[in-house]
Amino acid sequence: MNPQFTEAVQAALQDSIQNAEASRHTEVTDLHLLQALLADQQGYFAKFLETLQLDPREKIEAALKKLPTFAGEAKQPGISQELQSLIQEAQAIAKKWNDTYIATDHLLYAFWKQNKEPFKSWKKYSLQDIEKKIKEIRGDTHMDSPTAEQSLQTLDKFCKNLTSLAREGKLKAFKYFGFWATVNSPKDLEALEQQAEILKETRGVA
After folding, report:
1. 8 has which bridge partners?
2. Which of 147, 186, 180 is nearest to 163 (CA)?
3. pTM over 0.70, yes/no
4. Confidence of residue 192 (pLDDT cuts 50, 70, 90)
5. 155-178 b/e with 16+ CB inside 10 Å = b?
6. Lowest mean pLDDT among 19-23, 81-85, 180-184
7. SS3 letters for 155-201?
8. What is the pLDDT of residues 120-165, one digit of tens each?
9. Which of 21, 34, 133, 185 is deepest in the core (most CB within 10 A)?
10. Is the pLDDT of residue 110 over 80?
11. Do 104 and 6 form a contact (C-beta atoms < 8 A)?
């Protein structure tokens, strides 16, 4: 069965090919995919790593410079065995998690499972830690459509905007999912932050 990808993964794969071609690389590799995923700084993949305080971009750029290039006229780069294996692993993870589409968090988990750079040196987080964090962010959400990742990003942005406005003293009351919350004191702000976490867990329950 051919793998199905979320829109975010489709875009990253397309960018990977374009970046490999622009650099005259002989193959499109898992490094190109990592580069493309991190280029979208507002995307789920990059934001996830941000929550872990990880930024592997410098290591990725350094590794990309060492890849072989076409000596003469540039040709269409092939797909590396490493990238094919990564996608196959991500597909297996998606099936295990009861997801229909391969998302960027499946790829992240697959990258981490490989236990090689640029993530190998980040020993602070185990594979189990990464899975736990993914499940916490997802709640009951499954990757069952090409746009499934967008719902995670939208809700996360909404919750962050609420707490940001509250800290600035610009938010007095709001209504969402059928309830009102007022923010007039630090205690109210603490309650708001707790409610934001509940929203992430319930994933759109009215």
Report:
1. none
2. 186
3. yes
4. low
5. bbeebeebbeebeeeebeebeeee
6. 180-184
7. HHHHHHHHHHHHHCCCCCEEEECCEEEECCCHHHHHHHHHHHHHHHH
8. 877 788 899 999 988 888 888 899 999 988 877 654 554 454 445 4
9. 34
10. yes
11. yes
The pLDDT of residue 193 is 58
Q: Which of 91, 72, 85, 120 is nearest to 9 (CA)?
A: 91
**What backbone torsions phi and psi does residue 103 show, to the nearest 5 degrees?**
-110, 175
Q: What's the token pair of residue 196?
A: 């934001």
Contacts of 80 (CB under 8 A, 6+ apart): 27, 28, 29, 30
How many residues are there in the chain? 206
DSSP calls for 13-75: HHHHHHHHHHTTBSEE-HHHHHHHHHH-TTSHHHHHHHHTT---HHHHHHHHTTS-B-SSS--
Here the tokens at position 128 are 């189990």
Residue of 139, 31, 19 whose CA lies nearest to 82: 31
User: Judging by DSSP bridges, how do beta strands 179-182 and 173-176 pair with one another?
Assistant: antiparallel
